[in-house]
Amino acid sequence: MTGGQLRRRYGRVFDQIDIDGDGIIFRGDFEQMARSLAHTFDLPASSPKAHAILDHYRRTWAVLCEDLGIEETGQIGRDDFEAAMTSLAAQDSFLQHAREVAAAEFALADQDDDGQLAQDEFVRLIEAFGPSREEARASFSHLDRDDDGQIGREEYVVAWREYISSEDENAPGSWLFGSPG
């Protein structure tokens, strides 16, 4: 995989965050995404899981702003986002943060708190980011590494790590939001 293909993944994430499609993201987009995810799973804003995802998404915004040397009240365009992600994905501290964010997303979707996402839970989560139901189902089949019909927490966390940092286009995580092509 070339760096350009990895940057395309970052562009896909940017598009998911850029809710109004204006080519600019700001803190409010991250907060809205967190609220939307909680709403997808019928969680009130006051729930611990909703609070956790909101806190993690706010921290992600802060990390991006810090990397770019801008104030948290600023905004980020696609090219700057992709540049920041390229820089951050090479840093162990950011990969640890991404792991925590992925774990919070997983917890939000794990409605019965059994440490596993059934296909319907996983599909709802991925659809909330924008991919179609068909893309989410394809993603599920690639990420279910042990073929047990569920996505475990570690499978999901590893998929996110691969999505943002692996140049291996055959890695299961490259399918996180559907076909990597």
From TrEMBL:
| InterPro entries xrefs | EF-hand-dom_pair, EF_Hand_1_Ca_BS, EF_hand_dom
Residue ranges occupied by any EF-hand domain in the UniProt entry = 5-40, 131-166
| SUPFAM superfamilies registered for this protein in UniProt | EF-hand
Give the source species. Answer: Streptoalloteichus tenebrarius (strain ATCC 17920 / DSM 40477 / JCM 4838 / CBS 697.72 / NBRC 16177 / NCIMB 11028 / NRRL B-12390 / A12253. 1 / ISP 5477)
**Name used for this protein in its record:** Ca2+-binding protein, EF-hand superfamily
Q: Give one Pfam family, short name only.
A: EF-hand_7
